[in-house]
Task: inverse folding
């Protein structure tokens, strides 16, 4: 089976590079993006199975990005990430079409389990 | 003004201070969480790398060292935030007294940096070499005034621009100038907030000396100094005031 292709989007560069490296070590083909704008560009350039998206970012925020993704790539699954105490954000994200929602800090094994569920690879 | 009106104004001021305190605290909590999230992932990667180092894989031991240094950077980031946050929290209780304006301006800009980053705006602070003592001042309210001035400018600033907070000694104490390359938003809410900012600065013993629009640039000049100043220039305080910027 081909490796899962994941786009991980967060404005903290160090977080992105570390998570991408950890996913790669687990056989997942992970790519990082540091902004909503960069994520949309990447999605146009190469195919992904899942996008993992931070809600709060400078410029285009997670909700703006998910709206655009669902318009241009309705089948592309999105998992939202956010900080503490953001239940409303989770509900908004799910309403906008997110597959699931995780609160930071994320346990990597939990994230991978959701990535597999999102792509039917359980 | 009646006692009832004074009490009402004081209550409004307290509510506003509390809202400001909450905004700063929430923002800095997010910054701390960001740093801790990174540290969490770096620890995870450290754990991932350890078996490879034990197996003697080339570069794995060096990788562990590099990860430890990257964790230290995030720990230092947390300490820097907590140091400023602690000073900020104590400033609520600090009595009016003599303070170095440089420290207050630097702290206020640090605490507003997250909001600026989310608006994709760079915040720059320009401080003089020597100390700028402020006598009989309330440090909390000066921080609040600078922060709210920056927030006001952020609403109108274009993406990718810069806001500069500069401090210069003034015959009456100090002058804090907040500048952006773009004019203040010209709506009812912004004008109302500028008036509130003026009131806040006055409550802290200063004045919004002028708010000129100079070729599309908005400038706040906020002099702070001795309330009992006997300088020949002291009559300049109280002149002018916020003009609205529209």
Result:
């Amino acid at each position: 089976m081909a490796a899962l292709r994941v786009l991980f989007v967060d404005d903290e560069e160090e977080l992105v590079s570390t998570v991408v490296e950890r996913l790669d070590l687990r056989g997942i083909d992970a790519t990082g993006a540091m902004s909503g704008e960069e994520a949309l560009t990447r999605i146009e350039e190469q195919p992904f199975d899942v996008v993992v998206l931070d809600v709060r970012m400078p410029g285009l925020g997670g909700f703006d990005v998910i709206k655009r993704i669902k318009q241009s790539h309705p089948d592309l699954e999105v998992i939202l990430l956010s900080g503490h105490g953001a239940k409303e954000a989770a509900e908004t994200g799910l309403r906008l079409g997110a597959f699931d929602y995780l609160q930071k800090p994320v346990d990597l094994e939990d994230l991978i389990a959701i990535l597999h569920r999102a792509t039917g690879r359980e | 003004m009646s006692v009832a009106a004074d009490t009402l104004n004081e209550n409004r001021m307290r509510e506003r201070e509390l809202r400001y305190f909450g905004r700063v605290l929430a923002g800095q909590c997010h910054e701390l969480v960001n740093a801790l999230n990174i540290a969490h992932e770096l620890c995870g990667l450290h754990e991932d790398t350890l078996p490879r180092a034990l197996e003697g894989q080339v570069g794995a031991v060096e990788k562990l060292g590099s990860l430890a240094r990257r964790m230290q950077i995030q720990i230092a980031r947390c300490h820097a935030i907590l140091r400023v946050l602690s000073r900020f929290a104590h400033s609520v209780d600090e009595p009016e007294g003599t303070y170095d304006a440089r420290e207050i301006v630097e702290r206020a800009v640090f605490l507003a940096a997250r909001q600026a980053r989310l608006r994709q705006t760079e915040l720059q602070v320009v401080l003089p070499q020597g100390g700028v003592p402020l006598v009989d001042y309330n440090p909390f309210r000066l921080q609040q005034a600078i922060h709210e001035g920056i927030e006001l400018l952020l609403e109108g600033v274009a993406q990718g621009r810069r806001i500069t907070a500069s401090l210069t000694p003034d015959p009456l104490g100090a002058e804090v100038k907040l500048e952006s390359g773009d004019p203040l938003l010209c709506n009812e809410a912004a004008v109302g907030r500028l008036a509130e900012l003026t009131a806040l600065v006055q409550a802290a013993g200063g004045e919004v000396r002028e708010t000129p629009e100079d070729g599309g640039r908005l400038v706040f000049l906020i002099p702070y100094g001795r309330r009992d100043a006997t300088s020949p220039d002291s009559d300049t305080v109280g002149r002018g005031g916020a003009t609205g910027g529209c």
About this structure: Chain B is about 55% helix and 15% strand. The radius of gyration of chain B is 22 Å.
